Amino acid sequence: MSLTQLAESRLFGGRQLKFEHFANTLSCKMQLSVYLPPQAETQKVPALYWLSGLTCTDENFSVKAGAQRIAAELGIALIIPDTSPRGELVANDPAYDLGQGAGFYVNATEAPWTAHYRMYDYISRELPAILPVALPLTQVKSISGHSMGGHGALVLALRQPAAYRSVSAFSPICQPSQCEWGRKAFSNYLGDNVADWLEYDASALLAKATMVPPMLVDQGDQDQFYPAQLRTEALIDAAASSGAKVDIRFQRGYDHSYYFISSFIEEHLRFHARYLFE
Ligand SMILES: N[C@@H](CCC(=O)N[C@@H](CS)C(=O)NCC(=O)O)C(=O)O
Q: Which 8-state DSSP code applies to residue 38?
């Protein structure tokens, strides 16, 4: 595996980079963005993985969230993957909430998706194996994301709590097995057995979790997808039934957009820094 660099821009004393590589888990070429803070010029730094939402690529967060200034101050690299496998040979659907741009961070088991849609393995296994070899990164990492990506971040951290120092999410899809977005994606990617869906359902996972990394969730109360698609209350109930201490906050007046993310990304980065450097 080799990363081919496509772009580089100086940013807050660090470097905003864009790479292309062939992803073995996905059997296709992928692009990803990485922010390396100034500290990475002389030492290895820990990483925050960011998982984006429906319709996004690696560009949305890079351009709109305004995370790099604080990442530069704290010395945290930002790893920003795409949201699905891509390419003409990769299965797709005309709808925005299925197929390319809507990988849901699962390993698909159903045709025609199974050949490429293995985003769970790509994020949890392939990128953490290749990136610290190619870039000045330690093995220490945390994870965050938005909406579909918030779902992905919570699921990865709940399934592999030892792999992530901390997890946070903006407007996550908290109970995909019970909302339209999730049911559509999971029935296509995973088939009709709901027990299989629950392996990718943050509320189901949290309800039975015995080990939970430090967790912060922000949800805007004017979010156009709340509560129907996001089902934040299910995550609150799950936390109560497992006894896990998670910080789930409602932010008054905020919607689902990147304006919301950019308003609170500094708090999320400072939250992660507490655990990435402990
Ligand atoms: N296009 C869809 C929603 C897509 C959407 O809101 N995507 C969110 C994540 S769920 C996003 O981050 N969009 C990209 C952006 O705002 O830059 C709709 O209109 O219902």
A: G
Distances (CA, A) of 99 to 22, 112, 193, 216, 229: 19, 10, 20, 29, 18
For residue 2, the model assigns a pLDDT of: 87
Instruction: Please tell me the pTM assigned to this model.
Output: 0.98
Whether the Cβ atoms of residue 249 and residue 213 lie closer than 8 Å to each other: no
ipTM: 0.94
Which residues are catalytic, by number?
147, 223, 256
- Where the chain has pLDDT below 50, the residues are none
Degrees to nearest 5, angle at CA 178 with 204 and 243:
25
Distance 97 CA to ligand 1 centre (A): 10
* pLDDT, position 1: 55
Q: Is 116 helix (H, G, I), strand (E, B) or coil?
A: coil
If you compute the radius of gyration of the chain from its CA atoms, what whole number of angstroms results? 17
